[in-house]
Amino acid sequence: MTLKHAYDYLQRTEGFLNDEVLCVLSENEDTREHTRLLPVMVRCCGGRFTAPAQDVAHFINIIEAQSDMTVASMVNPDRDYVRDVSMPVGGMQKLAGIIEVIEAGALLGTVGEGRPA
């Protein structure tokens, strides 16, 4: 999946991310330097938090490791689980701006900070 495809997916889902989009934002070698610090919101049973895209998978793993995902744990207020992951307000606009900068650099024959393509 490319960054542009990830953006199109986010538009269709009104900003909700899946694992593939999160990987594009945090791990894709071509775009990671531009998108890894984008804020992502994670909603849990016990609240919500924002984190850079590069750290979201780590925090989700912590939450899931400390949570026994049985039916009994879902009604236990001491257990937490991830409800959804989404872009916070303004996140889509930031991502659109990043895509424009990357595309403009590609048109000029450079990628990132003036490095040859």
Describe this structure in words.
The chain has 117 residues and is α+β, with helices and mostly antiparallel strands. It has one domain. The chain is 48% helix and 18% strand. It has six helices and five strands, in the order αααββααβαββ. It starts with a helix and ends with a strand.
Itemize the secondary structure elements and their pairings.
Layout: H1 3-12, H2 19-26, H3 32-35, E1 39-44, E2 47-52, H4 53-65, H5 71-74, E3 82-86, H6 91-107, E4 110-111, E5 115-116
Antiparallel strand pairs: 1-2, 1-3, 4-5
Brief descriptors of the model:
48% helix, 117 residues, two-stranded antiparallel sheet, 5 strands, three-stranded antiparallel β-sheet, alpha+beta, elongated, 6 helices
In order across it, which strands form the biggest sheet? Answer: 2-1-3
* Poorly predicted tracts of residues: none
Strand content range = 15-25%
User: Which percent range fits the helix content?
Assistant: 40-55%
Main sheet properties: 3 strands, antiparallel
Summed up:
This protein has helices at 3-12, 19-26, 32-35, 53-65, 71-74, 91-107, and strands at 39-44, 47-52, 82-86, 110-111, 115-116. By secondary structure, it is an alpha+beta fold.
